[in-house]
Amino acid sequence: MKVRHALPTAWTEENPILAAGEYGLEDTTFLLKIGDGKTAWNSLHYLNKLNPIYFDYLEDGTVTFSASF
User: What domain count does the chain have?
Assistant: First the structure.
């Protein structure tokens, strides 16, 4: 799975529309949103605001994640 990522300020300024099912990750906060193909970033809700998802960037460029529920 490939996750689109950027700094929080970049997401807010660009305000992109994520494709349906596309993940968007804030690099410094590790907060995650999932697109629906029609709603701009600033209007999407964070998926993991209450239940953090922890990401680990590996040297080979892959990302692993785990959730705390």
Answer: 1
Residue 52: exposure state from Cβ atoms within 10 A (0-12, 13-18, ≥19): middle
Q: Count Cβ atoms within 10 A of the Cβ of residue 32 and give its class: 0-12 exposed, 13-18 middle, 19 or more buried.
A: buried
Q: Is 18 exposed, middle or buried (0-12, 13-18, 19+ CB in 10 A)?
A: buried
Query: The domain containing residue 21 runs over which residues?
Result: 4-67
Residue 1 three-state SS? coil
For residue range 22-68, list pLDDT tens digits in order: 999 998 888 899 999 999 999 999 886 655 566 676 777 777 766 65
Residue 20: count of CB within 10 angstroms of its CB: 10
